[in-house]
Amino acid sequence: MMGKSQETTMMDIYHWCHEASRYICFKPDRVEVYQELLAHIFDKVNDFENCGMKREEAMKAAVEEMGDATEIGLMMRKIHKPYLGYLWRVTQVLLVLSFLLIFYVCRQAGGIRNMIEELKPQKDYWEQNREVYDRDSAYELVADLTPNCEARIDGYQLSIPKVVHWKFEYEEDGKVYQSDTFKFIVKAKHSPFLDAPKGILEHLTAIDNLGNYYTDVSGYTRGPSVVGNLTVKRLFSSQFEMWVDKLSPDAEWIELQYDFLGRSFRLRIPTIGRGTYD
After folding, report:
1. CA-CA distance, 144 to 149, in Å (whole number)?
2. Quick one: 146 and 182 in the same domain?
3. CA distance 176 to 183
4. Is the four-CA dihedral 25, 29, 33, 34 of positive or negative sign?
5. Do 128 and 149 fall within a single domain?
6. How many separate domains does the chain show?
7. Helix or strand holding residue 142 (H, E)
8. Which of 85, 135, 173, 258 has its CB surrounded by the most CB atoms within 10 Å?
9. DSSP assignment string, 68-104
10. Closest listed residue to residue 100, CA positions, set 189, 188, 237, 193
11. What's the average model confidence in pLDDT over 125-147?
């Protein structure tokens, strides 16, 4: 059974380690330092015992040789900065959140392979499909434009990188008619948590500089209208091929308008190759 003097000495060792480590603010560091100090003291105790001291004398000598606990604790607090510990904790949390985000994105994309495909640079729709119209002799090019206009709404960044204005001929009831078609691409950048903004673009209307009104696709009849299809859908962006049916041949610009449930934006784009419209 441990004697009273030895028990007192053991308590002295624990008390000294606690006093020296309590000045460290970051708890995980404090626990680690306490264990290191305790191990260091017992190493000294063993050294003294090997030199011929009794156990009780060796423990007292080890504590005395360590010095003042408060002084040692203040010195160690300068070494163990709390913000480094908290930074490490934040980094661990961010790492876990990053893995969860990657898992979520992979699941949304249908797997790692699909996700890699989604992250590849996205080609413009017209770059891949323009030649279909260029080969068709019924289409006569009026203007090939790259307007500089964009809008932000509900987490989406909308822009129009390409506009093509054609005249084309069509036959109906044995007669040949000529009409203007105005096609453009709407790009929508968004986070992977948002779907393509199909609902927004389905409520687009338009007006030109002559005051002609073009209804949205949901109210589509046989009159002038704004129509579109989702053509490219990826995690971080989408592309829509859109066109204005029965565009007035004298219109110099057309303004796309969205006004629904208190949210709105305007995008004005040219229909001919002169002038700049924002």
Report:
1. 15
2. yes
3. 22
4. positive
5. yes
6. 3
7. strand 139-145
8. 258
9. -HHHHHHHHHHHS-HHHHHHHHHHHHHHHHHHHHHHH
10. 193
11. 70
Closest CA to 242 of 258, 263, 261, 264: 258
Query: Rounded to the nearest 5°, which phi and psi values hold at 149?
Result: -145, 145
Tokens of 36: 């290191």
Q: Give the separation between CA 133 and CA 139, rounded to whole angstroms.
A: 7
Residues 93, 209: contact at Cβ < 8 Å? no
64 in the same domain as 37: yes
Q: Does 197 lie in the same domain as 144?
A: yes
Q: What's the rounded Cα separation, in Å, for the pair 189 and 195?
A: 10
Higher pLDDT: 60 or 7? It is 60
For residue 235, what is the DSSP state?
Answer: S
The range of the structural domain enclosing residue 223 comes to 121-270
Q: Say if residue 65 is in the same domain as residue 197.
A: no
For residue 278, being part of any structural domain is answered with no
Taking the CA atoms of 134, 172, 240 and 183 in sequence, report the sign of the dihedral they define.
positive
**pLDDT band, residue 106 (cuts 50/70/90):** low
Q: Above 60 in pLDDT, residue 95? A: yes
Whether residues 98 and 176 fall in one domain? no
The tokens describing 75, both together, are 């010195």
pLDDT tens, residue by residue, 206-229: 889 999 888 865 544 556 777 777
Q: What is the pLDDT of residue 120?
A: 56
In contact, 63 and 8? CB cutoff 8 Å: no
* Co-location of 67 and 133 in the same domain: no
277 in a domain, yes or no? no
Q: Which three-class secondary structure state does DSSP give residue 118?
A: helix
